[in-house]
Amino acid sequence: FFYPRGSAIYLQDNLGKDLFYIISGKVKTFKYNDQGKEFITSFYNEGDYFGFTPFQENKTHNENAPAVKQTKLLKLSKSKVLSLISQNPVFSSNFIEILISSLENMKEHLIHMAYDSVRKKTADMLLELLPEDNLDPVIEISRTDLASLIGIAKETLIRTLKELKEEGIIQTGKKYIRIMDLNKLKTIK
Description:
The protein is α+β, with helices and mostly antiparallel strands. It is 40% helix and 28% strand. The chain is built from 6 helices and 9 strands; from the N terminus they run ββββββαααβααββα. Strands 1, 2, 3, 4, 5 and 6 form a 6-stranded antiparallel beta sheet that branches. It has a 3-stranded antiparallel beta sheet with strand order 7-9-8. A hairpin with a 5-residue loop joins strand 3 and strand 4 (38-45). The radius of gyration is 18 Å and the shape is globular. It starts with a strand and ends with a helix. The mean pLDDT is 89.
């Protein structure tokens, strides 16, 4: 299934029917708070699974999932995934590992959001968003999305990015951030 940039893969309160696997592209998941502000819960890239809602009986999605750029997905129904789990021990083991890793990452993210400085939260999120190949250390993301993902105000993020830029750690453009000094970024407290 192909989804153009900005198109909804699923919406909050829709009944969860499928698990999704990203063949190519990028997806973000988010919720709106009581004031209507968007809170990004995660970004998913090629090779990631998302939308685990179907594994809870008659449960609706608790977030929205639009394509960030053109995205090609594989949809797996609950029955297909359960069949693969019961018939294929390797798939079953890998699937459990993915779920555990996802939970551990989420817990770690919550701890950092609660206790780290704004500089540390920003640095850690930039490191997390870096492309895995690291050949071109450019992160394409809007300031609004990055602030939401970190859990800070956009104005606070802009001040922090300005400091990092003045220190020669990053370079910024309209919708991108280039890492100039990866080692310094990693040591931010």
